[in-house]
């Protein structure tokens, strides 16, 4: 481990949720990071290991009230808050020095108006939107490397975007009728007490939700349009799985060009990507195979040789879908090996 | 309860699986049925309540070896066997008198060749195929009423067919690009010991399977083609849910006619159907709301007013997807109120 | 079904929790009961089937604000409220006519002081305590038959009491060192939004709680003392299971008399009890075998022929542990067959 | 990472089960170990990552048929086999050079006769029993350091022994009436296809098993007797939890000496133990807080200040209950820091 002086000082604002504790877990184990500050408005003074029993024996940190001065001494500050917090604090914090990696939706949409419509409040820092970089390394690695402000993608957007990406970049599908049928474990709904997330409501049960329009939709479309170089249309239906972690997105697209070797295209596009695993054609990625891991496992199918491509994209919604991706961004921003601190093997079973 | 002489004598062949015990449960509680014989090759001599602890106190039946003579004394015989058994016994049994309600796939496809391809064995009674009636009451009620041999539909086909039916009957969608993304609890895989169905393999996990081609596909297409009056093309992707019971099928179809009131069409089509519940537009049917029930709950969506119809169709795979539907067929065949013995309310939570 | 005029008019106060919806389900299916009123302070005006999707198609009831006048027209009123509500309304309601079956703890302890200590508020109707009957039919059937006010036992107390009963009545064990290690599904914690009951907190997890002293302890001791005819000492440790329904209590007691045939004693004591199933010696009752059922399944063991009796007692915490037992009490109070409306077979799997 | 020549060459016999894959995961990540050989009789030739999807991208190993010559080139060989395999191969393998760490029960009991009774076959290498060391570091660290043959303790024995240890060493309890009520996730039953381990049988269900006498009983008694310096009597009742990983043992013992500060005794006894975490008095250890971790978390209670001590002991049955403990033994045997490769933080949620 390097000398203390070269360790990256990190702070986390609003670490009382699931992406927060996952980020703590990853950063505590990161050889080049020193987790210096962890804040929470409501739980200041409480030890983290009181709230999160897995941390006991690994962490003596105590939640502090968010303080721009203290956070300002960090090299990087993560926001693991719900939307609406980062955009209020970002400008002041950036001025104090740290780079920001925001896990919330605050800086994901380039259009402040669109953001305001979907998140039902005015955008708190529209002037920062042009400098914010959408933190999907597989597309924006270059910009991430020099960014001051990263908007970590949402969980569904990560799985869906990585799944469609090669088809759209290569113009192989009808972009007007994309379908993303996505299924997520309940941790995606967060750690707040809500009836719908109770074990007695979500356990031994399955249902769709957000069919009329989910907040991740504009974010996904923004990226898909960019990849396709034109406007795309997506039917996105999320569903709630009776389990804790994992997202599988089953993507359907109508091939406009039947002659291409989809498998080769995916393998090629992602050959250099440490966190996208293109499985052999016809594979069936399981969410448990990436539990706790930053990998996105993808498999491409053309059922019965027809004209519909079916792509399966599996991630851990808290890791590649949030906190793991945030650390991947940190590694890029600070010139570290991109896989540092992100190489653990999923436990099985 | 009616006098013993007017009770319908029922027998079940191969009742050691989940559809079997579910059928036992339903028939024991059916006011007009006397469960007279329950057979199993491998477990003859064992009491049912030894194998199925829920039956203790409710049932003194013992598994008998399958015997056409004994079964021949029944008014109706159910086959709760895997495929390949009913077609071997059906002819002899029909000759002995009883009507047959087969929960297996043996008589679902009209084309014996097609059946042989998908089930990897020659069809054992092709001459019976013309008289076999596909037991989906919402379409075939008339034929069921006078049938001697019923092929109870598969679980996925039931949910998917009922979901698409009004759109296809009315010619409202592009039939070349139908999509059925279906998710089922593990009981659909049966009670046999197999590694993939272990709690440690299927629990806290999610994945697609059978993408290359699932046995239910030809069965679904047979009915969709019939409803559409033309050849249809379906992408059908099943998935395994980390729970015991339930299927939710999320169906996507491209509307060719945007002017129709889909909600009204569904409500009208199913108004007289006791076991199809068309929920208010935009509803989100949950599988737990039909657990143990013979209901299929459907909700129609047109996300963002686009040209894609999204239909959600929820059933209990063991009830409306198998044994409940079998009893519904029995009621029709024997002139009983169709809902008899099938009116229990799902437990919640 | 009997004529409307002979139907028992029932009301439920506070039916928005899990015992509430379970009671609705049981009463809707009860051939001699008409569910006339269902109240909720916070949700008045909402249809029950909006809150509880399993009721859709079975129930058109709407929550009303609690109104003693309206409730007063019922023959029986159930309280499915948390503690602290029934004791405030009981006196007035009894005066208006109905009998009361209270599922809360308000009238379970005979000692108002003791109640106040454990429930942290003064008892609201101590004058009613003498007339309140502890609704465990296996002990108090006679008193229940003529009672005006029933205190339905808690879930853990039901399983534990029925498990120990024959040993204590017969004076077969050392009463100073009884041990009840009990495990319950999460529905026992109720339907309120609380972090500990989230799927992400309680799922794939197991822990003890309430070790220092659980509110059910005084209630259990009250009955055990009564059965033993002396003061007993119990170590009671409850645990939270990662599932929805079910309680298994594993009871340990040191035999003072080794010569007795425990199996025969249990069988004899419960021979006439419709809802206690004494399984063959050495059996292993499973909670799923009583899911949705009012049965308590018990098995007695003497491991390695030693001097420790181990009794396993399984119930559904919402049924025999609450709402089923409430209906069993109603049947006794109104002179109906005790098993009426309580005979359904658990679904399996 | 040290030069290749100083890496410890490890082999695993029978790595197709859950303890096997867990061992692979731990050893692949161990900085001082090179996993050189992984064998399986039935699956020779198959890649590990074909059988275990979590290993894809982390491991190119292929199962080989067990070959004493090849295994003989290892420094240490682990047996992750069911009982009956290690004792057949151990002598020959030890002669070839490697040290052996056996995760099965073959060498846990010192008495070959007793072993034969419980495991229903003659012991295959009774002459090795005297040199076998029971691999519980908290008791046998010294002997482990110089051992050639380690018998890794069973999962239940680990949790139960560590929980009782300080009470027995200090003679604080009545040793004739110890009670261990233990609950385990289904992975304890292994990866073999068996109906009882199906999700549809073990999910949403709870039950006791092995009450008449579980194979872990003689092993536990052997150690408890050793700790107490006399014969002890234990009622041990295991139960099956509807989840994948974790054991919580709830231990009951009657205090003979009420004056002792149990908390201080436990803290003192385990102060130097890296993998036993004595939590503050009255804590409630959760199995999820040690998921994937080698920690055993313990909390001591004296409910209501009575004379019964209640000790809660939580482990991950596959880690501290098997493979993690195996690696802990390896570290001791090879003079490495005991915590090497065993310091990861459990994921939460």
Automatic annotation (TrEMBL), chains A, B, C, D:
It comes from the Bacteria. It holds the Pfam family Semialdhyde_dh. GO terms for molecular function: N-acetyl-gamma-glutamyl-phosphate reductase activity; NAD binding; NADP+ binding. It is an enzyme of class 1 (oxidoreductase). The active site is at residue 155. It catalyses: N-acetyl-L-glutamate 5-semialdehyde + phosphate + NADP(+) = N-acetyl-L-glutamyl 5-phosphate + NADPH + H(+). SMART domains: Semialdhyde_dh. Residues 9-147 form the Semialdehyde dehydrogenase NAD-binding domain. InterPro entries: AGPR, AGPR_AS, AGPR_dimerisation_dom, AGPR_type-1, NAD(P)-bd_dom_sf, Semialdehyde_DH_NAD-bd. Catalyzes the NADPH-dependent reduction of N-acetyl-5-glutamyl phosphate to yield N-acetyl-L-glutamate 5-semialdehyde. Belongs to the NAGSA dehydrogenase family. Type 1 subfamily. This is N-acetyl-gamma-glutamyl-phosphate reductase. The gene is argC.
